[in-house]
């Protein structure tokens, strides 16, 4: 791990899909090469969802920044929205769906990484726009 500070700015953000055609974009802010906790900005398109997924050894934590949605974890459904934090335990089968009129955004923390950052970075580039950068910078944007 580095011994000097690392600063990632909104302009350096590169959003990816895990697979072509996905409705969720992810940008790695810090991966295992820099931190014991991987930090990702996730953006769900309107109506977007990731497929049910699980992480055998990792706890996944979502801090919702904008929008609203529904999370399902091992059959339990909970509403999520900006300002809320969701913690998903290792081995849980889960997915999140955007139910709001605009994009749903979260900072996602994963520990241990268990290959998550590399999987995101291998995916196709998905484009980064002013709304993504504004959410990360906690600045207002023109989008709803």
Automatic annotation (TrEMBL):
Coiled coil: none
Positions of transmembrane segments: none
Domain Cupin type-2: 44-107
Family annotation (SUPFAM superfamilies): RmlC-like cupins (SSF51182)
Gene3D superfamilies in alphabetical order: Jelly Rolls (2.60.120.10)
InterPro entries per UniProt: Cupin_2, Flavonoid_dioxygenase-like, RmlC-like_jellyroll, RmlC_Cupin_sf
Entries under PANTHER family matching the protein: LIGAND BINDING DOMAIN PROTEIN, PUTATIVE (AFU_ORTHOLOGUE AFUA_6G14370)-RELATED, QUERCETIN 2,3-DIOXYGENASE-RELATED
Name of the protein described by the UniProt record: Cupin domain-containing protein
């Amino acid at each position: 791990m580095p011994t000097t500070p690392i600063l990632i700015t909104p302009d350096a953000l590169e959003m990816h899909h895990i697979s072509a055609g996905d409705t969720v974009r992810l940008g790695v802010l810090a991966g295992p090469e820099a931190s014991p906790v991987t930090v990702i900005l996730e953006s769900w398109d309107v109506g977007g969802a990731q497929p049910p997924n699980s992480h055998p050894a990792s706890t996944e934590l979502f801090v919702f920044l904008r929008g609203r949605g529904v999370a399902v974890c091992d059959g339990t459904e909970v509403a999520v929205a900006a300002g809320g934090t969701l913690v998903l335990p290792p081995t849980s089968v889960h997915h999140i769906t955007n139910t709001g009129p605009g994009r749903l955004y979260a900072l996602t923390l994963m520990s241990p990484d268990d290959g998550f950052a590399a999987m995101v970075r291998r995916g196709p580039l998905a484009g980064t726009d002013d709304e993504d950068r504004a959410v990360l910078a906690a600045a207002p944007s023109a989008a709803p």
